[in-house]
Backbone:
């Protein structure tokens, strides 16, 4: 399975060792069903992924105390807490931007604990399988950049290189002075330019038609496995406005075309449609 986010790849799990972290996308895990859409059939099969937890509406005002709590959790050493904060911040959309801005401006080294078989540049051990995140998550400002990239469907350059095997686990950036300054500068410039009026749905639309294969891949990846509610998004909107663009992308060469073609099959399946409808109903 390929997840097109630049900061996340999924590695095949073998039969032994700890299970992969919940962060790994389950985009290709969907239940078998026959589509009810006119003229559409689906041969997509697999095991249903775990349903996402409920979220607060992106439209609701978030108390400062909650934002502070999420900031603290994203900067914690406990990986499960960091992962939950990552997902919760994505659900807040524009309201998460002040948290990410503050964290990007305040680098701290906080080594992750309780990572199980998570593969990332600071991992202490490689089990031969697990979810891989190509950013140095031991640095809190890098975590903020990781959240921001997924939130806005942009690649600012936070990826630390390949982490497909144990040989590269200790090869990531280990200090703020070594971290690519261009990634931080690009993220800060984006945050400054989008201080008000930004909407995640508009960013999704823009990414799909951007002509940038990396951004388009991130958008297709979100559509295959939405990570949180998105204000204004619905199955009907996908059908009417986004699917024609996805159909064009399915004709592209390489991974982008393959992922777009998979999305078209998945979106015709009642499992995907029901899962998306349920997730978006939290708005």
Residues:
């Amino acid at each position: 399975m390929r997840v097109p986010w630049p900061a996340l790849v999924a590695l095949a799990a073998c039969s032994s060792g700890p299970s992969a972290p919940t962060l790994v996308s389950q985009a290709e895990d969907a239940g078998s069903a026959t589509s009810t859409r006119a003229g559409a059939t689906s041969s997509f099969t697999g095991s249903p992924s775990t349903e996402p937890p409920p979220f607060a509406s992106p439209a609701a005002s978030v108390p400062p105390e909650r934002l502070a709590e999420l900031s603290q959790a994203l900067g914690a050493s406990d990986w499960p807490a960091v992962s939950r904060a990552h997902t919760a911040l994505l659900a807040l959309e524009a309201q998460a931007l002040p948290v990410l801005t503050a964290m990007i401006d305040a680098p701290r080294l906080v080594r992750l604990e309780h990572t199980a078989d998570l593969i990332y540049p600071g991992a202490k051990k490689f089990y031969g399988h697990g979810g891989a995140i190509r950013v140095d998550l031991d640095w809190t400002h890098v975590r903020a950049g990781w959240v921001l990239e997924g939130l806005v469907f942009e690649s600012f350059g936070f990826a630390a290189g390949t982490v497909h095997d144990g040989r590269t686990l200790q090869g990531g950036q280990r200090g703020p002075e070594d971290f690519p300054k261009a990634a931080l500068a690009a993220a800060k410039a984006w945050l400054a330019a989008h201080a008000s009026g930004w909407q995640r749905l508009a960013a999704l639309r823009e990414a799909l038609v951007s002509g940038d294969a990396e951004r388009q891949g991130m958008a297709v990846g979100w559509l295959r496995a939405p990570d949180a509610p998105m204000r204004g998004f619905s199955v009907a909107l996908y059908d009417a406005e986004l699917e024609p663009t996805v159909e064009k992308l399915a004709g592209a060469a390489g991974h982008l075309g393959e992922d777009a073609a998979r999305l078209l099959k998945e979106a015709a399946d009642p499992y995907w449609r029901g899962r998306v409808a349920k997730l978006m109903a939290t708005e």
Q: What stands out?
A: The radius of gyration is 18 Å. The first helix runs from residue 64 to 74. Strands lie at 8-10, 131-133.
